[in-house]
Amino acid sequence: MGFEHDPGADRPPFRDPALPTRKRIDDLLGRLALDERIAMLHQYSPAVPRLGVAAFRTGTEALHGVAWLGPATVFPQAVGLGATWDPELVRRVAEAVSVELRAFHYHRFPAVGTGRNSLQAWAPVLNLLRDPRWGRNEEGYSEDPLHTAELGTAFCRGLAGEDDRFLRAAPVLKHFLAYNNENDRCVTSSGLRPRVLHEYDLAAFRPVVASGAATGVMAAYNLVNGRPCHVTPLLADELRRWTDRELFVVSDAEAPSNLVSEEHYFDDHAESHAAALKAGIDSFTDHGEDSATPLGRLREALERGLIDESDVDRAVRRQLEVRFRLGEFDPDLDPYAAIGPEVIDCQEHRALALRAATESVVLLRNNGLLPLSAPKIAVIGPLADTVCEDWYSGTLPYQVSVASGLRAVHDGEVTVSDGADRIALRSRTSGALLGKTAFDVVDWGDGVLTLRSAETGRYLSLHDTALVADQELIKSWDVRETFRLVPVEDSVLLQNVLTGRYAAVDPVDGRVSVTAESADAAERWEREVLRDGTAEALAAALAADVAVVVLGNHPLIHGRETEDRAGIALPFPQDALLRAVAAVRPDTVLVVMSSYPYALDWADANLPAVVWTSHGGQETGRAVAAVLLGEADPAGRLPQTWYRGDDPLPHPLDYDVIKAGWTYQYHRADPLYPFGHGLSYAEFELHDLALSSASLPRDGAVDVSVAVTNTGGRAGSEVVQVYVRALGARYEAPLLRLAGFGKVSLAPGGSEVVTVRLSGQLSHWDVATGAFTVDPGDYEVLVARSARDVVLTAPLTVTGPAPGPRPGVGHRLLAADFDDHDRATLVDATRTAGDAVTPADPSTPATLLFRSTHLAGAHAVEVEVAGEDDGRLEFRSGSAPLAAIDVAATGDRYAWTTTSLALPAPLEGVHDLHVVLHGGVRLAAFRFTTG
Predict the structure, then answer these.
(1) Cα angle at 609 between 608 and 610, to 5 degrees?
(2) Which is nearest to 86 in space by CA: 720, 756, 910?
(3) Of 150, 106, 148, nearest to 341 (Cα)?
């Protein structure tokens, strides 16, 4: 059906809702002056009064509730939502978030700037939880791409709404791509060989974009294979190929400037901004509200011919499409325009927050102590009576701690001890108490402390150089509330962690200021213990029948944006408190409230019960209490592997999940708690596994069905997990890979059949052909309760001709398309496209393996090389040498040259080809020729 515009109407065509959106955008673009269009490339896009076009800004944080705009419903952290394994629940959470976002848009002033709060939601985060030490672990759903994509799609659909024409909110996926470390994040490069790129990192984004549920993407701070993500060709070559809709791609904050200032990837900002725009960045989040600087750079790029008007128009068009879909130009037709402020933290959303928090609780271990029936419960630990906000959470409208949650529903006695020492710090210079108060001190590990006034409960905080106990919570980009007490002889020094400076006391007026640059200039404080926190905790445990010890992290301390964790052990003071309590009260439950996994080896071996929850939002305590007391079944399952303490984890920057052995797919050592693990109070039987066919062609599909029956005496939830693995694969296949899952809730005696369709889940990225393929051969379908608890298996055969050897003669073989490597690293071939390989350390040779390469008839080899230093290339068949080429420096890492060498004799047959790189040589590709 076509649309016609009435040429006699007073309104311009872009105001006519009867016209197709593309025509309306064309009309509006044609009316905007060039300078007005350039101005729309910044995060804060100004109004165009002459056209009646309002101001627009990108981005409201909405990861697990509307953030930074005031009180709003706070749901569990994303990793907690991942633990629910429930896409429909996650969709409902996102729906509630977007409804509240609409209310903030219409009825609340923005925290920064003027105009309206943005309906573009910067959520969800699809970065995979490869390394549990990642500082932003709490923001992702899972270590598995399929699991992440399922929940990410659900969250996007919840944000976007059900209307065919209008969006309730515009979901933006974060952060593209391979972003899983915080330390030096703006200058580190994530090395992704093609299999890891396509099977792992892209696999989390591809289904979400292909579903049409996402409207945009945010580029990541890091580099991939030596090239910053803000100029990656993957935006065009992959991301935008997955959907017919336009995607509006935004930069991360200050990342465009980083291209020059931090990464030194370009010589000047005009060049870097031009490259980002041409690569596909449509909006520049840079310099805050000050658009003059980034826009000046873009205007300079236009004047220098680095970009043209079509580049500007392409980006503005993408922004306008989102704005039209959000109803900005059709307020009378917008189905969401009537949403009022009463929806913010409404009763319906509170109930949903409780359900989400409850279903995210994971029972890791239970020898029968849970559910609790003891009359007296002692709740102990630094998180016993505390609910934390994280950086991307909303402002809690209220909070229910574990202690208060238990008090509200437990018929017996509930006592609380945080286990913190109460101390007084007295100046040796003035004799005065610091802050004129005692402080309750919590050690969060590595000697990093928080001090809360014993009188007010507020945190001691640094204000410029002054110390004031005035903060109700810790939530700022620069955390000013953490300190160290540094022992010096029979006194201590007070050091602020943020500045590294020490407290000093003016000998004249006694004023305390954090100004001392060295320990020698610092004030000596006498530390007096007024209350022994451990002794108080032990007394509480002894007086109770059961101890519930609540340990974990504060989301803004040790492991947060800009800071990775050094390890996965519990902080030593928390571990010591746990062991002490368990020694006097063996019936001890450990509740871990954290943004990430811990190594809980001792607890698993010595305690009767262990429970995990993320920081679950305003209803955390009610949810945990319901699980502990048996009012709710523990329905959560782990979304990532919890490794053992003695398991040496790979280097944080080793993104090669295959070779490094990351995640359940490739990690061979037994974990403490595997991916997908979680116990229930109910009992379930998985049975009657059936495949719709025992074999299928390479492009076929098969349905896997399995029945689950509640054989116990109480209702509960089970997550049926279906995995696949290739048997006898010619490539290094995953140990197993999640192919689908289904969560069922059943009453006693109830039964349900879960069905999962297998199609693309059997494929792998074939480096020889540069495409996904399903190899013929034998596979196994596994039904499991976790990645290490397989219950049922069934064989599956894929039919078809066996793949032949890799063509090696007359074909350009990309160096990055190796099957395996040793000591090699991936780098950028040019600033705009292509990968190359070079030794990770020029002093140590790197080896690339190309398996089963057909080289019959080869007489010579030619190589595409570059490098600032001399190098050498060797070609071997197994250990037998084939050729060696000395490579002279080309003067620049992007100065590519081709050189060739005749082979001593023509080659025959198929070879496992080894290419050895010496020195600073960079290899982009090579080719065997017949002449």
Answers:
(1) 140
(2) 720
(3) 106
| b/e map 677-690, b = 16+ CB within 10 Å | bbbbbbebebeebe
Residue 553 CA to residue 601 CA, distance in Å, equals 18
Amino acid sitting at position 679: L
Residues 321, 324: Cα–Cα separation, whole Å: 5
Strands 120-122 and 56-57: unpaired
- Beta bridge partners, 717, equal 745
Q: Catalytic annotation on 252? A: yes
Question: Percent of the chain having pLDDT more than 70?
Answer: 99
Q: Which two tokens stand for residue 413?
A: 């006695």
Name the active-site residue from 86, 144, 201, 252. 252
- Distances in Å between the Cα of 572 and the Cα atoms of 423, 450, 552, 651, 801 are 20, 15, 11, 23, 58
**N-terminal to C-terminal alpha carbon distance within the chain:** 60
Residue 131 contacts residue 143 (beta carbons within 8 Å): no
The per-residue pLDDT for range 245-289, each reduced to its tens digit, is 999 999 999 999 999 999 999 999 999 999 999 999 999 999 999
Give CA–CA dist 902/844, Å, rounded.
Answer: 26
**Quick count: other Cβ atoms within 10 Å of Cβ 417?**
25
Among the residue ranges 84-88, 106-110, 569-573, 833-837, the one predicted with the least confidence is 106-110
Closest CA to 851 of 724, 736, 725, 729: 729
Taken as a whole, the chain contains a residue count of 931
Which residues are paired to 485 by β-bridges? 494
Residues 806 and 232: beta-carbon distance below 8 Å: no
Q: What is the dihedral of CA 797, 799, 805, 811, to 10 degrees?
A: -120
The distance of Cα 606 from the centroid of its chain, to the nearest Å, equals: 32
Alpha-carbon span 313 to 308, nearest angstrom: 9
CB 427 within 8 Å of CB 445: no
> Which of the 8 DSSP states describes residue 673?
B
DSSP 268: S
